[in-house]
Amino acid sequence: MRAVVQNDKSRVSRAFRPSSPRLRTRGGVAVLAVAALASGCAQDASGTRGASGGEPLQAPPARALDAYAGKLRAAQAARVAAAERWKLEKVPLTAPPPPAKKPEIKAREGFEVRGQENLPPVFTSIPTEKKIVFLTIDDGAEKDPAFLRMMSELKVPYTAFLSDYLVKEDYGYFEKMRDRGVTLNNHTLNHPYLPALSYREQKREICGMQDVIEERYGKRPALFRPPYGNYNRDTLRAAKACGIRYVPIWNEEVFADHWDYREWDRKIHPGDIVLTHFRGADDWGGTMRDMVRAFLDKVTAEGYAVARLEDYL
Question: Collapsing DSSP states into helix, strand and coil, what is residue 198?
Fold first, then answer.
């Protein structure tokens, strides 16, 4: 489902030393925990007082640092165990915290339409120098309970773009997904080739799916992905009228047995959005779990972590 994109203005898309000797023997995690907590709690010898005239700041008790370090060790142990259970080659990397100031999102060059400055941008990556990628999954055909468990145990974030004609077979499956912190976004009601439709018909497809997601899952999406990655100016006008702010498409697509690339160098880049689909063995010759392994093994081997797309928008 790679989009064919043409550069046409109206075209169809495209620290503080540990106070307890015991802490010093706890290993790197404890030291990191001490440093992290101390960085916000240090004071100078003059007894500098905190803002608003508070008492002099004090170092946290060693017991609290021990507890925090223990939590870090337990979390890492759980990730190691999950990676082994789901047969990954390595433990997935943890994404850095998202920036306090979100990056400016603009339409990718060559993906603009006439009047683009007033319309939601179409983009394939997030501006960042961090080695992170974003996993997005389209449509909703495959509803594998093991996939939900796998992603929860591995703590890998992803973003879903749903079409009602497939989701309505089991709204409850995606409710479980939402309850696990996944954002459910708009992929139209019936997955049509939008540029072949009138503005009114496109608006019905997009606004109709907005209504379904709000009614079923409690929140109206801000993200929309056009089926096949194809769109025109009417698509973006309709999306804006339906409350859409962003139109992310993708730079790579991952399957159970291979990757496809948009860029000529056939490489992953910082901030790339990766597409896959809710598909199973009948379509791919592999399961959603196989796809996740293929995805995570590759990005982890190349030093990338998976971040949550919404944290950067």
Answer: coil
- Cα–Cα distance for residue pair 139/255, rounded to 1 Å: 14
Which ranges of the chain would DSSP assign to H, the alpha helix? 21-24, 28-38, 62-85, 145-154, 164-167, 171-179, 199-217, 233-241, 281-284, 288-301
Radius of gyration of the chain (CA): 23
Q: How far apart are CA 42 and CA 255, in angstroms?
A: 49
Q: Which residues contact 288 (CB under 8 A, 6 or more apart)?
A: 142, 144, 146, 147, 278, 279, 280
Q: Which long-range contacts (CB under 8 A, 24 or more apart) does 169-172 make?
A: 169/143, 170/143, 171/216
Place of tokens 């996944």: 182
Pick from 181, 144, 136, 180: which is nearest to 162 by CA? 136
CB atoms within 10 A of CB 311: 15
Specify the 3-state DSSP secondary structure of 275.
Answer: strand
For 286, the token pair is 């592999």
pLDDT in tens, 229-263: 999 999 999 999 999 999 999 999 999 999 999 99
Dihedral (C-alpha) 188, 192, 195, 199: value to the nearest 10 degrees? -50
Convert the pLDDT of each residue in 124-165 to its tens digit: 999 999 999 999 999 999 999 999 999 999 999 999 999 999
Give the number of other CB atoms < 10 A from CB of residue 61. Answer: 11
Q: Which residues contact 19 (CB under 8 A, 6 or more apart)?
A: 59, 62
State pTM to two decimals.
Answer: 0.79
Which residue is listed with tokens 């089926």?
227
